[in-house]
């Protein structure tokens, strides 16, 4: 059976981009694939985190997965640090990864900023750990938002480098699954900026835990342009804010962008925003409420993670042992 691996960092607020670019798609895929969904706490440590917050966010992301409809019985849900094999495989793969490949990673450049010499080794090596996450389970498919595309190409290159080095067809090359009408959700205040956990500007981001009134207010205040909605997709050219809101509508209603455009063709933004707000409130309101209920019961969440980690280890450890043997590490 084809296997899916994907993950989210337990840093800051989960938002509509995480939901539409990742989690919502996972829910749809869980019946067709053997699925592993991780809370990548070691990746979170590539930037400074408050220890108490990190623990709380780890539980919150777990709650979001479950609240959004991921079945913890059918899928494996666990936090990365609970399976030590991730870091060990990351080392072995890091030894096969040329610096030139890592130097191309645009996310590192963005996150490190101008102070490159002060950026941590972990931030630089982050994509190697991500490759290890995926390859440790021999995952064949990785559903993510568009911003992860480059990291996935690197994971494929690293898998290929291992197979070539040892002359063995061991790791499958993982396929990115970047789909839906909202693979890149933009800020509600600036159509040129990605919606992100770190954006501090008011009303830029809809959080998965926002209540109904806040969701509706943020949509009403979303930046628009003075024209009615276009008659065709071509009319979205140069209208980033309109494209973003229509993409969000399409993704929330499981429709294509073309269908959303057709539905609101020629209408004005205020009418469209009311419909979008009603749709978003209906979906996010339920998920947010369920998240709050789950987070109030940390014992339940921890039980899910513990059981998930056991099931993950049962797949990871035999694979790691095989890698050790292939690599020539003695297991006396
Ligand atoms: P992160 O928040 O960086 O841990 O990302 C977790 C998942 O959410 C990844 O699959 C990302 O590609 C996806 N994601 C993050 N931000 C967005 C966004 N603005 N639009 C679509 N997907 C996103
Ligand atoms: N790097 C991803 C992000 O920031 C999270 C991640 C870590 C991931 N390991 C992964 C995603 C493995 C998919 C598969 O969004």
Report how far the terminal alpha carbons are from each other.
33 Å
Overall radius of gyration: 21 Å
**The CATH superfamily title of the largest domain:** HUPs
Q: For the residues shown, what is the average pLDDT?
A: 97
Q: Biggest sheet, strands in spatial order?
A: 1-2-3
Approximate helicity band = 40-55%
CATH arch. level architecture of the largest domain: 3-Layer(aba) Sandwich
Give the total of domains: 2
Tally of extended strands?
5
| CATH fold type of the largest domain | Rossmann fold
- The backbone outline, from C-alpha atoms, is globular
Tell me what the structure shows.
With 332 residues, this protein is mainly α. The protein has two domains: 209 residues, HUPs (Rossmann fold, 3-Layer(aba) Sandwich); 108 residues, Tyrosyl-Transfer RNA Synthetase (Orthogonal Bundle). The protein is built from 13 helices and five strands. A three-stranded parallel beta sheet has the order 1-2-3. A two-stranded parallel sheet has the order 4-5. The mean pLDDT is 97. Adenosine monophosphate (AMP) binds next to helix 1.
């Amino acid at each position: 059976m084809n296997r899916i691996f994907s993950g989210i960092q337990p840093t800051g607020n989960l938002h509509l981009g995480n939901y539409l670019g990742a989690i919502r798609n996972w829910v749809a895929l869980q019946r067709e694939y053997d699925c592993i969904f991780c809370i990548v706490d070691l990746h979170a440590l590539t930037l400074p985190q408050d220890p108490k917050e990190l623990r709380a966010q780890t539980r919150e992301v777990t709650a979001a997965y479950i609240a959004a409809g991921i079945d913890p019985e059918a899928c494996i849900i666990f936090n990365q640090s609970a399976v030590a094999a991730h870091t060990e495989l990351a080392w072995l793969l890091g030894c096969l990864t040329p610096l030139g490949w890592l130097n191309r990673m645009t996310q590192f450049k963005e996150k490190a900023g101008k102070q490159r010499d002060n950026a941590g080794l972990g931030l630089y090596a982050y994509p190697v750990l991500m490759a290890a996450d995926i390859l440790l389970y021999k995952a064949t498919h990785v559903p993510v938002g568009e911003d992860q595309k480059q990291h996935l190409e690197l994971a494929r290159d690293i898998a290929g480098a291992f197979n070539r080095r040892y002359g063995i067809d061991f790791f499958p090359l993982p396929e990115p699954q970047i789909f839906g009408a909202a693979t890149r959700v933009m800020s509600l205040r600036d159509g040129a900026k990605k919606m992100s956990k770190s954006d501090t500007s008011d009303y830029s981001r809809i959080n998965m835990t926002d209540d109904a009134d806040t969701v509706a207010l943020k949509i009403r205040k979303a930046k628009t342009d003075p024209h009615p909605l276009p008659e065709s997709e071509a009319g979205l050219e140069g209208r980033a804010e309109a494209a973003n809101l229509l993409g969000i509508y399409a993704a929330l209603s499981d429709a294509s962008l073309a269908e959303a455009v057709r539905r609101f063709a020629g209408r004005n933004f205020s009418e469209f925003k009311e419909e979008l707000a009603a749709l978003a409130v209906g979906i996010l309101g339920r998920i947010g409420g369920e998240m709050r209920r789950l987070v109030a019961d940390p014992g339940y969440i921890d039980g899910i993670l513990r059981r998930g980690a056991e099931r993950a280890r049962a797949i990871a450890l035999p694979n790691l042992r095989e890698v050790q043997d292939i690599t020539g590490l003695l297991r006396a």
